[in-house]
């Protein structure tokens, strides 16, 4: 089996953490004789510097031709002043949209070794394992018309459009129901159907879909209540399915429940399971270049890549177990450090995972 992976390190801490993920890829490539092939390219600010745009069409072509894409993170103060159309974030939004990566899986898992890292009491979060399924290529992020216009009275007005077609709701719903079937068969669909028509439709489509999945229990919650319940009693949730913007917000909350956004991977999948894998955290420009960033979210994203796009779930299990072992050994990057553990830098953490993989 020969598999082609495009590596997009991106900006900020992206290149540092990606270097460690590549170490891990090399280690499993050797161990399992996978015949991985990599091609590296730029996205975000790095692509603006190199190509003048946050995602070059040649990069997009490479990604389309590959079996999977592994990305670091995009953005940073250097590019903040640019026109909103060529900001680094646009590169990420474009690759999601152009590759049809509508299904964003964002697990929030609390590693028992890190129970103290959460800002919530340990008993509230112990054993937490939630999956947020976020719609990623529609909703208010992509709705037209959008912009800032001049009103007749001379003041400016900003506007965006929140739209979902039934087919868009149905396909993300299916993704979530399929995931729920492999877990505890419970889905909570999050909307704002007491105010927004677009989510009245969202709720209707989810209810209709539920008839095809009688083994899965579907409940609904308004987004404001969901935000509250996530910090009040997060373990009431298993799979949460929601639109693009609500998913953006709730997944950051979900991440923080685990105390360590530096630990959380994500997958963005198309209709055929091809995908882009990236850590949930951002480019952390404040610590970039210092060798202290936590590479585990990117390494765990690589694990998800083996599971969902490369059909190698044993490799995924192995990487995840190696991360667990490294935590058991007491290695901690600065973001998850607590007294009594061993503080390590980015590359030492990568080395520790490689070591734990043996092979
Ligand atoms: C995320 C990020 C992105 C988003 C930004 C960087 C465009 O916040 O992946 O959650 O809003 O989707
Ligand atoms: Mg976000």
Detailed description of the structure:
This protein has 359 residues and is α/β, with parallel strands linked by helices. It has a domain at 1-106 and 260-359: Isopropylmalate Dehydrogenase (3-Layer(aba) Sandwich), CATH 3.40.718.10. The protein contains 12 helices and 14 strands. It has helices at residues 14-32, 45-51, 57-65, 88-98, 122-125, 166-181, 197-210, 223-232, 244-257, 296-308, 313-328, 346-357; strands spanning 3-10, 36-40, 68-73, 103-109, 129-135, 147-150, 156-159, 186-191, 217-222, 239-242, 265-269, 275-279, 331-332, 342-343. The protein has a 10-stranded mixed beta sheet, sandwiched between helices. A two-stranded antiparallel ribbon has the order 6-7. Helix 1 (14-32) links the parallel strand 1 and strand 2. The longest helix is centred in the first third of the chain and has 19 residues, at 14-32. The chain is globular and about 60 Å long. The structure holds 3-isopropylmalic acid and magnesium ion (MG). The site of 3-isopropylmalic acid (IPM) has 4 residues, from helix 4.
């Amino acid at each position: 089996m020969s598999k082609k992976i495009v590596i997009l390190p991106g900006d900020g801490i992206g290149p540092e953490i990606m270097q460690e993920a590549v170490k891990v890829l090399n280690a499993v490539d050797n161990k399992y004789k996978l015949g991985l092939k990599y091609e590296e390219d730029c996205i975000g600010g790095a692509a603006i510097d190199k190509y003048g745009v946050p995602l070059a069409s040649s990069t997009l072509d490479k990604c389309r031709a590959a079996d999977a894409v592994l990305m670091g993170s995009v953005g940073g103060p250097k590019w903040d002043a640019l026109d909103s159309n060529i900001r680094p974030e646009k590169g990420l939004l474009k690759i999601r949209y152009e590759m049809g990566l509508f299904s964003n899986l964002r697990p929030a898992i609390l590693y028992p070794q890190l129970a103290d890292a959460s800002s919530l009491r340990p008993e509230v979060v112990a054993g937490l394992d939630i999956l947020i399924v976020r719609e990623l290529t529609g909703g208010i992020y992509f709705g037209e018309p959008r912009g800032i216009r001049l009103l007749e009275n001379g003041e400016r007005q900003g506007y965006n459009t929140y739209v979902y077609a039934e087919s868009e709701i149905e396909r993300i719903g299916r993704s979530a129901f399929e995931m729920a079937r492999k877990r505890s068969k419970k889905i909570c669909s999050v909307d704002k159907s007491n105010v927004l028509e677009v989510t009245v439709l969202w709720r209707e489509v989810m209810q209709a879909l539920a008839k095809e999945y009688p083994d899965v229990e579907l409940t609904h919650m308004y987004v404001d209540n969901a935000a509250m319940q996530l910090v009040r009693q997060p373990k009431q949730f298993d799979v949460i399915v929601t639109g693009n913007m609500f998913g953006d917000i709730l997944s950051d909350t979900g991440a923080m429940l685990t105390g360590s956004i530096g630990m959380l991977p994500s997958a963005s999948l198309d209709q055929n399971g091809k995908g882009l894998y990236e850590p949930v955290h951002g480019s952390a420009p404040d610590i970039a270049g210092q060798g202290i960033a936590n590479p585990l979210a990117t390494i765990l994203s690589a694990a998800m890549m083996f599971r969902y796009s490369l059909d190698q779930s044993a490799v995924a299990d192995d990487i995840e177990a190696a991360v667990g072992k490294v935590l058991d050994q007491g290695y901690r990057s600065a973001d998850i450090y607590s007294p009594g553990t061993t503080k390590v830098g980015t590359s030492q953490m990568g080395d520790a995972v490689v070591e734990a993989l043996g092979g």
